[in-house]
Amino acid sequence: MAFAVTTWSAASHAADATATPPASLLASAAPVTSQTMQVEGLSQPADILIDRNGVPHIFAANERDGFFVQGFNAARDRLFQIDLWRRRGLGQLSEVFGRAYVAQDDAARRFVYRGDMATEWRRYGPDAKPAAEAFAAGVNAYIDWLARHPDQMPYEFKKVGYWPAKWSAEDIVRIRSHGLTRNLKSEVARAKVVCKASLDADGVRVGLQPAWKTQVPDGLDPCLPDDLLKVFDLATQGVKITKESLQHANADVVQLAENGPYDVSTESAEGSNNWVVSPQKSATGRPIMANDPHRAFAAPSLRYIVQVSTPTLNLIGAGEPAIPGVAIGHNGTIAFGLTIFNIDQEDLYVYDLNPANPDQYRYRGKWVPMRTVHETIDVRDGAPVQTDLKFTKHGPVIYVDAARHHAYAVRTAWLEPGMSPYFDAMRYMRAKTFAQFQTALDTWGAPTVNQVYADTSGNIGWVPSGMAPIRPNWDGLMPVPGDGRYEWAGFWRRDQLPSAYNPASGYFTTSNEMNMPAGYPYAQRKLGFEWTNGSRHARIDEVLKAKDKVSLEDSERLQNDIVSIPARRLVALLAPLSSDDPQTSAALTLLKGWDAHMGADSAQAALEEVWFSRHLGRAYKNAVLPKSAADTFGAPDPAAMLDALEQPAARFGANANAKRDAVLLTSLGEAWGEMMRLQGTDPGTWQWGKLHTNLNAHPLADAVDAEMRAKLNVGPLAKGGSPFTPNQSTYRVSDFRQTNGPSFRIVVDVGNWDNTRAMNLPGESGNPDSPHYRDLAQKWLDGEYFKLPYSREAVEAATESRLHLVPATAR
């Protein structure tokens, strides 16, 4: 195995013409650290050029080598992260972490794809399986390299004491539980509100869009078991590792990530913004594509920026590091970005069980046997655990109520062929025209997304995509009996979803809002009725509409915009009010005329968010619902609440305005009192960022000492914004710790590719000892971007280090 560190020289790479930078760049280029590695499985030499921001640019002689090197590099930079992703998805955590993870493994295995693999691969097209095989081989090649260089083993494996697992291509597509489908939790929450009150009361929990009245399915008892969703939550949550869980002794130490009542604000937290701007509205005269997906924060980041360049394919952008290709970025001809489009892809089925045989359920008048899959869960330092996974014709059983002879199973589009989340980007990342892009998305399964498009010919477009179940006789908003009366009748075609091409406005933007256009037959197709709060979209649209020309810098500022439309609406509601209570009066004075700018140093933002998240929602909910219903869920739907506060008659009844004003004033006074307890009696010292912080936590942070935890975690950072600002910041109400938001951002200058800007919090590397582990955190916080080079010339100029890979047989 060759291993050398030198400075780059033209002579050392004279045989590789593609690796030589232009002479014009040599004089100004800083010395480049170079490393050469022999790699089993590589067919021809390849380069990984790592730029000064830690972004790897892969240059390979063919596509197979390109995806192979992408897998090799993902393992080189993010091995613990992708190994944990694989183990979580396949249900193999107990094998390395011990008995505490048996329940989570059992749950995850219920949602692994178990269908025909030939059908699965066909769904993604002819290029997909070879790419996955090459990627997995690249991961394995790095694991083999580690076997010969064990001193290079990542810290996490040494700490826990286990060896990374080898991959197969099937692993990549069989894992489904990271797919962000919906709306199972909301179905259960709605049923619980109906059990305690009524369907009308559920409108406080979540408002349906477009306006819609659902009904309780015939034969459904809405009073569901309290812990019905425990298995589903375990199957879809992240991995929580603590000192206690690593003792391998007690299965009860692994707690659910979200263990409280269902909260619409947390369910809809996985959001995003994107927009495309036409040349006519762009300050550059070229299209602009901007995207900032909002996901959970962690160290390392969920997203990984990478370039994969071969003679037939030249991709750059971000994806999840365990998946080949990129999902957001460009290919030198088109740019593409995505946000969640809220198609309802889940249903909970309730079955009557045969009292004489609990493995049989009633279906169309007969007792039908469940399918049982027997599996063994290997357990570190313990005996293997045998588990029986039960499946109905609709999907995995997640709960059995033996006393009532009921079983509950999930039908989810996750488990259909071709539904591996984000993997079907393999199709559209090769498109060169809008027609090709649309065709490529015909098979897109999950997550359900607003795809936006821009190309070098000046075209822009919007293509919502995802498998949308056809429900002939119900709307998907509540659980249904599993007796055969409520069956999917296939899926709506992609061309039956809305779309747009070169809109007259000169731009198109999405932020997970209800964006089905006027006249769309939503009542027939029933794609979904639960959408993310429209405030981010409204603010973005407000800014874009007001500009004659939109620049790249405008897009950067807009991605970092922290103006809250809900806060603006609340300030307007307070404007005419007064109070004799000194605390309430002081609060009214502080908020009077405030511009709803949610700065980290803002006293008004601190007061408004403490009021909004801890006091106003609870007061409103208790004022308009019976206590039994109010206690079944957490925060009310913010949009529905604001609508009701502005037009109180529908919810507050007689003397509606007075009741509304009492809710506003009483809860505001309580919030002022809490702010005094939190930050003192002088509002001049209050700051939102003292409460609201961003922490990128490493999975092992709770399993190490304080010194190591400080090295693994990035933050906390004082943070502005709110869940409703374009710079989205969903937080835990318990401590205001930011949980979701835009860690990755990109603004693409379509056609002038080297002028694209990007950011990835906290850094590109997954190695805590790397300078690129946390180097982008402060820049991210300050709203800064870096140039993302694309041409070989620009990449060479930005290169900090070079990893030159050669086939192991080469001499």
TrEMBL record:
Domain of life: Bacteria
Pfam family, one: Penicil_amidase
Keyword Hydrolase (UniProt): yes
Keyword Signal: yes
SUPFAM superfamilies per record: N-terminal nucleophile aminohydrolases (Ntn hydrolases)
UniProt KW keywords: Hydrolase, Signal, Zymogen
InterPro entries per UniProt: Ntn_hydrolases_N, Pen/GL7ACA/AHL_acylase, Penicillin_amidase_A-knob, Penicillin_amidase_dom1, Penicillin_amidase_N_B-knob, S45
CDD domains per record: Ntn_PGA_like
PANTHER family in the record: ACYL-HOMOSERINE LACTONE ACYLASE PVDQ, PEPTIDASE S45 PENICILLIN AMIDASE
Family the entry assigns: Belongs to the peptidase S45 family.
Protein name as it appears in the record: PbsX family transcriptional regulator
Organism of origin: Pandoraea vervacti
